[in-house]
Amino acid sequence: MLLRCGMRRFLHPAHVLVSVLGVVGSLTTATQYLAATFAYQPQLGEPLGRVAGHSFYPPHFVFVWTWRYGSYRPAEAYLSTAVWILFAGVALTILCLFGLAILRGAPSSKRTTYGTARWATSDDLKRGGLLVNDGVVLAQTDDAVLDEYVDDNGERRLREERPGSYLLRHNGPEHVFVFAPTRSGKGAGIVMPTLLTWRGSVLVYDLKKELWHATAGWRKKFSHCIRWEPAAEYSARFNPLLEVRAGPNEVKDVQNIVEMLIDPSGKRGDKDHWKLAAGTLLTAAILHVLYSESDKTLAGVATFLSNPERSIIETLELMLSTQHTPSGPHPVIASSTREALNKSENELSGVVSTACAFLGIYRDPLVARNTSASDFRIADLMHAKRPVSLYFVLPPSDGERLTPVIRLVLNQIGTRLTESMAAPVYRPAHQVLAAIASRVFRRGNVEVLPPAPKDDGPKHRLLMLLDEFPTLGRLSFFERSLAFFAGYKIKCLLIAQSLGQLEEQYGPNNSILDNSHVRVSYGANNEKTAARISEMLGKSTVVTENVSFSGQRLAGWLGNKSSSEQEHGRDLLTPGEVMTLPASDALVIVGGLPPCRARKVLYYADAAFSARANLPPPEDPREQAREFLVRVVSNDWEQRKLSAPAATPPVPVSPANDAALPTLMGGGATAVPAPPALGAPNVEELAETSSPSSTETPKASPGPAAALPVATGASAGSAAVVAPKRRKARPQQQERLSLDLFGATSEPPPLERAPSGDADEPSEAPPPSPHSDDADPFDMLWKSGIAADGSTPDSDDDDEGAPEEDPAPVTSPRSRRRGDVPL
Which keywords accompany this UniProt record (predicted)? Predict the structure, then answer.
């Protein structure tokens, strides 16, 4: 048995085959050499056969001829050569046997028992589309040399000794998720380089206002650059209620707003009876405010529900008796109001107090002013003529207080931009055949293909760059829609400090990480995140050799030595190695590719990036609002100010929407002038309205309810809305009307106007007022930003104030090494 096992171990079939072939080949070579030397004479014996004049003899004839003719002196030299040929063949055979033994004993380089994880090569990066010239900047190739040092303040910093050959970028439709500890270089390595190279639209969640100061100056050269800071004195404005579309979509839009109002923190399972009942009341209140009140803002909703001049019962009865439509009250408002009136006094008090608590943040004068109008529309992000760079700035001091406001607007943006997808453009078959015939037969009387129908798809890609994404709480819609955002040309760059921070808001089984095709990590500071990163990198199969010696203990040498090999799996990086990852390294994990160990990007050490960073941003809000000047005043609900029953006291008109019409109450009541509000500008005076008996009706905005005739006169307990005539404003007054951004006691810094003829100077000819007699209804509809299909067309004034051309592209040697196309 031992002999059999030993023979199986050493006598491998390949060894036997090589030995036989080597010996037979050596004998045959020596035999044929002697036969050719002796000219195949008959004395050599009978050959095995003849081919092309050559005789072939048995291999062992070399020994016969050596024995027979060895004493023949003239043949000694030839016989000696044949013997040397035989020895050389045998020696070569022995060397081949040794080589086979070594190869057999060498460990296999493709062991896959426990895993095949490895680091990506340049071919892998090229195949994965990471060596492109556009897209989100992830890292740079590992041939870069970064040196770590400690500055005078004791902070660890990096300096770039040698840049990498290429930047690793991702320009596909998939999303990118970055998780790295605080102060690890996420902003300098990913966020800043991306904002300084991305030429599409971008939505930035900027916590510290650093990104605005560093990147807005360059981005304003080719895009509308807008900063919305809810608690800042000088900020652009956005009114979420003006995104509600009058008509079939109004209830859906309002319910989406209410859904975020009653869930300010995003905690799962936190909706009780009081919140649900408050949501129903808020839906009715918002619809009523949009239809019949002047202050169409969330602050106006809060004021309407807590009006000190009437009780909540009177407020609900007002909502129930108001004629929102020609047939009576709005059905949703009527049913929700009746549901509230059916509650007991204590329950109704709890519902109302809960609803008012959700609107408490909008009582802040700064928040109320910054949500009183809209200097931009959601559709502008992807449908404007030029890209839009929208920065949401939220100081850390107001983070917890103002997060519900940011959550509401983000949910609105995500919902609105993913409602419809542009349909493919098709031409009728007869037009295609006519075009083919005209080209084939060269007939001039056959028209060529007409222009294709207008494509309503987005004009720009949108990058949603959300720094410290988990601080926004759980966005349920965002988690669900992340899977299909890419189909609407929306790419997300989400940044968190750790995976635990993400799981705290979305749970351990969330789909945020699953829907992120690209993941970038700078290491970890906690064991759970380090273990998860180690699992993402995968396992490889390694072989270890165990050597043992045996023999007498007191002998001068050990008699026997034995070795054995064993395969086992090893993490490409263990959790401990992830936690001790060098500060210069970055891990890039792309689906379908081996993981890449790269180097961080330092934007301040790159000449191409540093030349674009820290340019002066457009700090003046008037300069930001100028981008969409013609759409500041008009909105879809501007003329929807309906009258209430005659017994109801008139509601004062608020100047929040500065183009609002005064409401005439039934029974000959006169219009109530608007009281002075905080920060209200000195707008043009309104002309005297006509008498209540007048049958003149306003030009209503095109909507399902406004398209129907409204009862006029003082009969039926209600009065019709009468459009007053307004005096034409001077250019200075019109500019102040359109740019109502400041309080009466707070003046903005002076705005340096461009020379005459400069494109940046706002037009001195104001757009016609929507209430003037010579205003074209279709023109005002266009300028309001609302098309017939509900979309937002781009006005011709979008290019007013066209930015200066981008400076010459950087063509430094480094940029050429990183790609033929400059940054």
Answer: Cell membrane, Membrane, Transmembrane, Transmembrane helix
- Length reported for the chain: 823
Residue 745 placed within a domain:
no
Q: pLDDT means per 10 residues in the chain (823 residues)?
A: 41 74 83 80 79 79 78 76 84 83 65 85 93 94 90 85 94 94 90 96 93 94 93 91 92 94 78 90 96 93 94 94 91 95 94 95 95 91 92 90 94 90 54 60 48 67 94 87 90 93 87 92 91 92 76 59 78 92 94 94 92 88 62 57 44 39 32 36 33 37 37 34 41 37 38 38 40 37 37 42 45 39 38
Buried b (16+ CB within 10 A) or exposed e, 446-484: eeeeeeeeeebebbbbbbbbbbbbbbbbbbebbbebbee
Say how far apart CA 692 and CA 742 lie, in whole Å: 35
Instruction: Check if the beta carbon of residue 491 is closer than 8 Å to that of residue 464.
Output: yes
Determine the residue type at 340.
Answer: A
For the chain, percent helix, then strand, then coil, each to nearest 5?
Answer: 40, 15, 50
Give CA separation, 313 vs 11, 349, 358, in Å. Answer: 102, 10, 20
How many CB atoms lie under 10 A from the CB of residue 638?
21
Would you say 59 and 24 are in contact if contact means Cβ atoms under 8 Å apart?
Answer: yes
Q: 791-806: b or e for each residue (b if 16 or more CB lie within 10 Å)?
A: ebbbbebbebbebeee
Asked, for residue 632, whether it belongs to a domain, the answer is no
Which conformational region is residue 185 in: left (phi greater than 0), alpha (psi within -120 to 50 degrees), or beta? Answer: left
Partners of residue 159 on adjacent β-strands: 147
| In-domain check, residue 99 | yes
Q: Phi-psi bin for 668: left (phi > 0), alpha (psi -120 to 50), beta?
A: left
Q: Domain limits at 78?
A: 2-105
Tell me the two tokens of residue 345: 């006094």
* Residue 131: its H or E element: none
Distance (Å, whole) CA 815 – CA 818: 5
Pairing of strands 388-393, 201-206: parallel
- DSSP for 759-786 reads TTSPPSSPPPPTTSTT--HHHHHHHTT-
Both structure tokens of 45: 């014996």
- Could you write out the DSSP letters of every residue in 394-454? --GGGHHHHHHHHHHHHHHHHHHHTS--PPPP---HHHHHHHHHHHHH--TTS--PPPPPP
* Cβ neighbours of 551 (radius 10 Å): 12
Angle between helices 273-292 and 312-321 (to 10 degrees): 50
Residue 167 identity = L
Which residues make beta-bridge pairs with 462?
Answer: 201, 490
HSE, side-chain direction, 13 A CA sphere, residue 308: 0
Question: Do residues 346 and 422 lie in contact, with contact meaning Cβ atoms separated by under 8 Å?
Answer: no
Residue 788, judged by CB atoms within 10 A of its CB (0-12, 13-18, 19+), counts as exposed
SS3 680: coil
**Which residue is it, tokens 């290491």?**
523
**How far is Cα 665 from Cα 608, in angstroms, rounded to an integer?**
64
- Helix or strand or coil: residue 311? coil
Can you list the positions of beta strands (E) in 423-577? 462-466, 490-496, 516-521, 539-550, 560-571
**How many structural domains is the chain composed of?**
1
- The alpha-carbon radius of gyration of the chain (Å, integer) is 41
Closest to 657 (Cα-Cα) out of 627, 677, 685, 629: 677
Phi, psi values for residue 224, rounded to 5° = -70, 120
* 660/209 Cα distance (integer angstroms): 34
- Cβ contact 53:138 at 8 Å: no
**97 within some domain:** yes
Phi, psi angles (nearest 5°) of residue 735: -65, -40
The owner of tokens 């005078």 is: 152
Q: Which residues contact 583 (CB under 8 A, 6 or more apart)?
A: 146, 148, 156, 158, 184, 185, 600
